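Two proteins follow. First one:
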Amino acid sequence: MKYGHFDDDSREYVITNPKTPYPWINYLGNEDFFSLTSNTGGGYTFYKDAKFRRLTRYRYNNVPVDNGGKYFYIKEGDTVWSPGWKPVKTELDSYECRHGMSYTKFKSSKNGVQAEVLQFIPLGFWGEIQKVSLTNNSSETKKLKLFSFIEWALWNAEDDMTNFQRNFSTGEVEVEDSVIYHKTEFKERRNHYSFYSVNEAIKGFDTDRDSFVGLYNGFDTPEVVTDGKPKNTIAHGWSPIASHYIEVELKPGESKDYVFMLGYVEVAADDKWESKSIINKKPAKAMIEKYNTVEKVEAAFNELRTYWDNLLGTINIKSRDDKLDRMVNIWNQYQCMVTFNMSRSASFFESGIGRGMGFRDSNQDLIGFVHQIPERARERIIDIASTQFEDGSCYHQYQPLTKKGNAAIGGDFNDDPLWLILSTTEYIKETGDFTLLDELVPFDNDASKAKTHFEHLKVSFYHVVNNLGPHQLPLIGRADWNDCLNLNCFSNDPNESFQTTGNKKGETAESLMIAGLFVVYGKEFVKLCRQIGKDAEALEAENHVNNMIEAVKQHGWDGDWYLRAYDYYGKKIGSNENEEGKIFIESQGWCSMAEIGKEEGLVEKSLNSVKEHLDCEYGIVLNSPAFTKYYIEYGEISTYPAGYKENGGIFCHNNPWIMIGETMIGRGDAAYDYYTKIAPSFLEDISELHKVEPYVYCQMIAGKEAFKPGEAKNSWLSGTASWNFYAITQYILGVKPDYNGLSINPCIPAKWDGFKMTRKFRGATYNIEVVNPKHISKGVEKIVVNGIAIHSTIIPILEKNKTHEIKVIMG
């Protein structure tokens, strides 16, 4: 069942039924200031860090789901309704929510009154605009009462939800003209406050939640709205809110617009006060002045649209499949940018409290957005590398507000360092900027320990070399990419965290996934060394890579697929010898991408085994058979019910590794089939089962052994976005940046006649037409550049500021 439709021309998903199977959300903001907005008006707002600078409150796992947000109440007589349907849930005469590129529009009507709400965050601005437009489409004059509503969070989202003995006494506000200022804790250690304004004289306000809502009411029936009159309350402790009250009269056919602004202000420590206990409002007033008219708002909105035109203009394809085109051209790229901003920190599944920016996460995310914002990608790489230690290991995560590493969820994830080679080499291939390698980058954010970024890559590579186990395969540490495969944990206490509990310092548990990863990015490190003239470094590194290849062939092959690991006791995991968990996806993906044993047929056998044992209708499951009992020597992976998350679920992040592996042996039909099974736009018709948004990837889909196969969870913030974009554009469509040019080597379904791609690369525009007259999956017969044939699949760097015509004939 569908709950809306794609509007590709407008780059919007249009929701026409507010009762979606789960809240379908969008992200507002592109730099420092962000909001999450659901299709019924739920969500919350924060500055930089969803834990330490949260402006508005949100209650996760609530009943009903998605209660609390940024609401408008419209009262006409005894009828009360909201443009986003919630919280009032009055049946509307019409409803539409349009999620676009960093904006959301609501358009609803009731009893001849139409309400439109446009929400967005202007570029470079620390405030959210909410433009409310009311139109009388009836033949009689309408008298309406309009109430706004937000609930302030007390800055630290974790403390806000727990420290009630303090927080019920700290709330403070000021009201001046049509602006409500939230200044809780401002007189103490904070140099920031927030505000909520409207560009209209108000008839009243409220700032105390209990008075506005009524102690025994909900957001659906707030006492002030039901009574139709504000109480002009000033919060002293308890739970501060901001609500404006406006009286509206509309003649037939008349419209009125109101500009609301939710803003964040920082002031210097010596400039906090206008007078005793009165905050310095000058910065807030300047922000309000900037967007206090509809004309100013429209100009800012058009600027935002242009910004996204440019971001999405770097890669654009035209195939014969609208579902593919909208994923590559719009929604996959958009999700990659949102994930760049958020990492795994703030969604309707991630509370923004327990996780910051991940070392491995952020490195992998970069491959999905480096083509759009290379300068910010460079900054991100340096931020990540700065949290590394001198031996190559690193903090597993860091906080976006401070950019400093923290060990809140443990460390010693032994795959982490290698991902820095991925992000760095992809950045250099995209930009040609080798100067990054000479940049002095701290270790552990300590400038006195700074070395060149190349040295960071070197210690990343040798961290694996220096941490090998009995089979000369990489030690897994606390875990590798699969955080739930905890082979050195041995936890039998349900109050312990698997990620922070390590009862044994393991020197035996080894990972075949890291082995394949090391070969892939070890080869990249060797290639980079040769590119910059470090031939001796390249030769030494190449020997280590070759040794790893031999170790995998000798100790990592199980007959029909690659092993997953050796446990603490040296026993095989992911082997036909095991009772459960006989085969895992990660090692099949990485060892296939590394082409280990390709000439002996190992890669093909491995991928055939994936098809036989792991593939299902909804994607490729992580392991099979799923675990049905707890294996203390395996850890968290065996705690999930069969078919969910890491235990036999379709963990979408790793499906593209198999897609790429299939392209290595030229099987374009298989690669594309796997792609379509998890790409959101291909799943729109099963939204009732899938539940989450049909325009963005999710982390997990329930696998074939689950109670409800095909049901998805954890949408938006997932490495799935970047890896799927990387797989479809660079390996299936086959247009891949290289150090000295643009490589074109597609691996597509044989039935395709071809496709077209516009690719901006190093200042030039490449109009690429791929034709497939012989209907093969892989192979390039000829490439013609501006009318001249070249004898390579790598197009050399072409002249900047010009458009170049490329024709690729497969054969």
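Second one, unrelated to the first:
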Amino acid sequence: MSTDATPSTVLPSATPGKASPENLTGSQSVVRTLELLGVTDVFGLPGGAILPIYDAIMDSSKIRHILVRHEQGGGHAAEGYAVASNKVGVAMATSGPGATNLVTAIMDAHMDSVPVVFITGQVFSTLMGTDAFQEADIVGITMPITKHSFLVKSVEEIPATIAAAYHIAGTGRPGPVLVDITKDAQQNTAPFVWPPKVDLPGYRPITKAHGKQVLAAAQLLAEAKKPVLYVGGGVIRSKASQELLELAEATGAPVVTTLTARGAFPDTHKQHLGMPGMHGTVPAVLSLQESDLIVSLGARFDDRVTGNTALFAPNAKIVHVDVDPAEISKIRVADVPIVGDAKDVIVDLTAAYQDATRAGKPELVEWWTYLNGLREEFPLGYTPTTDGLLAPQYVIQRIGELTGPEGVYTAGVGQHQMWAAQFIKYERPNSWLNSGGAGTMGYSVPAAMGAKVAQPDRTVWAIDGDGCFQMTNQELATCTINDIPIKVAIINNSSLGMVRQWQTLFYDGRYSNTDLNTGHDTVRVPDFVKLAEAYGALGIRVTKEEEVDAAIKLALETNDRPVVIDFVVSADAMVWPMVPQGVSNSYVQYARDHSPSFGGE
């Protein structure tokens, strides 16, 4: 499609008054295109096949390039930047191993619908297919995990291709786009034509929903006795939090927010039941399970939410709103499928609901009596430790309370991720960043780095596990050198905590290869405080509850360098509630060997 047909992407004009196009190398063309698209920050690591672009980027006064210590870190930093700012992130790497080191971050962005443009160098086009030094078919490798992939062999194609990649990444259902550019295309010259003609036949994301479908959804909402608004990360991607609030208050329906949607709806709002899923709150899990209508907004019925899909919400009709038609009815057949952007659809749905209920709104008192009873009987909490070590839930809760809702919180994957999702109060979108779909260990520190670059005036915490932290902690060097003062809280239980929890519950306590020797009463390899100091960060170790607040306050006051706090916590702490894998959500366990009781069962 031409740029005329895509009003959502308005390409700025190049410098006015030039009689003829300027001759630029391909590498200069890459940099100029990024500048004209409004890109101000790029994360990357140079190598032979992308050297021409790195040479050209030296001459840019508009783009800040941040040299990462590992390409995976650059990819996650671009993700964190994108999620925290609602902009398109950009990461760069060289060919071969540089490009393949980006694959994990590309998959992560794909699973969580994060808009990132990944630019890689490729060997000379004449050498492709010969197993040349550092050659890898990165387009072929990443095709299943990108929204689109481009291979550029001609200098003339560069402006239009990068502009198209930027447009694809940020429109419709956001996601990662790869642009692989051969070295000869970077080195050759051609007239730089701007704005380019962006031709994307077949790419027509639907944003405006069909009116009849919205009316049908509104009618179901007007008739439902046990409705639930099931809110996914798409609400945050479409910047629809305010619209969601208006819909929720108009309907009076309970709201649940998935792991990637935390902050889309304020935790303190009386209609919010918390997070659903394997480690969701009991009211959130059972509200979906017992409902008669689920209105899914930008969510995808992930297996961690549904449990055994065949047994999920057996009495519920489904309204499924998603910008990606491939998601609708993929897992749970929708009674009313609505393809469209969440923000637009929610506005229309609110208006249609108000029209449908002019004669009177449905009575939800009985439904709320049941849900409030669950809230009272099964509040989110934790059991104090018995080994004298810190309770990780307490540590994370205090980080949230002392930092406040204006902070940004990232997490790795595992127990600490679930505790951070549960025990920090999220009041605004873009304040919670984590690896939801892919479950990527090592996401937290580089994502926090990217978020801090995007939001320099906000306090940014990386809440990490001792296992996850050892995957990407080299990016502390990037933070120190580039004045990116993130705070890192290592929830150090000296083990791969979530794997250990499953071994405790399902493998008779056989702890095969989950001991990491980083915490209490171990050899402490590595010593996280010494490691932090070696990277130029402030290192603190906390072993007692009375030390927790002082350490967090010191971290909050320290903004001239990164801070790393080694919170030595109990290895026996577990994440509750929990729905064991493969069973009905009705069997949610509030604590070990304790499930809610059901009347008549």
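SUMMARY FIELD: The first helix runs from residue 26 to 36. The chain has 23 helices and 20 strands.
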